[in-house]
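Re: the 129-residue chain
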Amino acid sequence: MKRFTALLVSLLVILSCTAVFAVDAVQGPRTFTEEERTAFLEAVGIEVPDEDTIVPYGLTCPVCLKGTCEESTTTTSWKRTGRTRTCPDHWHYQDIEEKRTLIHEYICNVCLYGYETQETEYRWVHDHP
């Protein structure tokens, strides 16, 4: 019984850590405190903007509030997931599910602060004539 309890507790810890990391991957850039933002800008050598500064249109940098974050996207190759379904066009064939990851990278054009987000795309492939 002690082994089972220890295994259960370990599993719960692993699952909770996984959930925390999964949430972090989806949230995008973190919010900085005013002190963190000022310290970063001074370290990089960028003048700290006033509160009345006009922010440019677009994906505004969460750190310097001066630049915009330019996006670049890379994708991984399609991989089979192992799932199949009956083909909607030919009921006697099976379709195969594939997935790939899209990685969106955002980099500020002023202070070079960057972050990335990821998403997964799925598709069904007709692996038959």
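Confidence is low (pLDDT under 50) at residues 19-25.
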